[in-house]
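Suppose you are handed only two things: the residues of a chain and a line of SMILES describing NAP. What would the bound structure be? This form records exactly that question and the answer produced for it, so the two can be stored side by side and reused later without any lookup.

QUESTION INPUTS
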Amino acid sequence: MNEKTMKLTVLGATGSIGASTADVMLRHPDKFKAYALVGHRNSQRMLALAHQLNPEVVVMTDAGSAAELKGKLPAGVELQSGMDAAIAAASDSSVDMVMAAMVGSAGLPAALAAVYAGKRVGLANKECLVTAGRIFMQAAKEYDAVVVPVDSEHAAVHQALAGHDHDSITRIILTASGGPFRDRDPASLVNVTPEEAIAHPNWNMGAKISVDSATMMNKALELIEARWLFDMPADKLSAIIHPQSIVHAMVEYRDGSVLAQLAEQDMRSPIAYALQTGERLEAGIPWLDLAKTGRLDFQAVDIARFPAMRLVQDVMRGGDSLAISLNAANEVANQAFRDRKIGFMDIVTTVEAVLLRVENVPVDSLEAVWSYDREARVLAQEMMIL
Ligand SMILES: NC(=O)c1ccc[n+]([C@@H]2O[C@H](COP(=O)([O-])OP(=O)(O)OC[C@H]3O[C@@H](n4cnc5c(N)ncnc54)[C@H](OP(=O)(O)O)[C@@H]3O)[C@@H](O)[C@H]2O)c1
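ANSWER OUTPUT
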């Protein structure tokens, strides 16, 4: 093996980010080798990936799905199951980098294990920082882990910050596509279906994040994520609607200069950025043709249409228990909407009702994170029954 080869564990390998990560790795077989691929239930997808990437270990966190792979993996690939195996794969001493791309707060333990093991961590799972940002970033400092954002907006900020002094930043502005309902009459949103909400105009993503995009809860989570990643107070963080999704974020400095990062809408771009430790990597992205794009539009976020953006302002200024509760209640309500148990507008209403019932305090232990997470899930279920 080339001595510069980077060994990776991909958490959430069977998902959308996992697929884009595999694509970038396969473009550079001399640079990347899979140590472990971790999935949850999609054994068919894992089988295909295992043949493409030939990892040392395959983990399915769901035991029944691991059983489906018995005797089918390529020779020499070790099959394991359960979250403990995922945690071990994320912290194995032979691993150089972990791509943290499980969905939801279920992704926190394994991503945090990678941080405690001092790995380079490509962070796609925004819920890690929303629920445990204080603990996660403190651990990264203590254990010399390098956390590189994979969310396109945060990867953009990361690039616009390079070489600049933190104190001279006056604003970080994340762009938002506005999702599929950006221009719909708010009164008509009551009846939208999960299929309509998942059909994002610009990005092809997993179901949960697509619905989060439609409610703009995704942008709310991203603002909280930015607060921890870049150590920024709430009043320096904002979002703006940019329907073309070409500018991913902007950083304004005290001299009035604003640096923006532009790229085609393709997650392989921020993934390639996170995977490189020196020279930039070819990622299969078409050249950005601004003459063809023609125009780049921007508009303020309409808080009446997207109440999640109002909620997040209070959450960012409040204690960590609020962010944990917002995330947990949203996971429950988002799933309930996709299961057709509640309407689209009920998602954010449920989250807001939960936030009114929970404590507003700082949180500095994982036990407390899980306790607030559990409480908010129970409350969200109750609110949806009422
Ligand atoms: N997609 C994007 O463009 C994008 C952009 C920015 C950030 N992100 C973030 O990246 C993360 C992944 O998003 P995605 O779009 O790739 O989601 P996705 O396509 O739904 O994939 C989710 C992955 O997580 C696994 N998973 C689901 N539930 C799990 C559980 N309880 N325990 C362990 N693993 C579990 C899934 O496994 P199985 O499929 O095998 O069940 C799959 O590998 C999310 O946090 C999202 O917010 C995504």
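WHAT STANDS OUT: The longest strand covers residues 32-39. Residues 12-18, 39-42, 61, 101-103, 106, 124-127, 151, 203, 205-206, 208-209, 267 surround NAP (CB under 6 Å).
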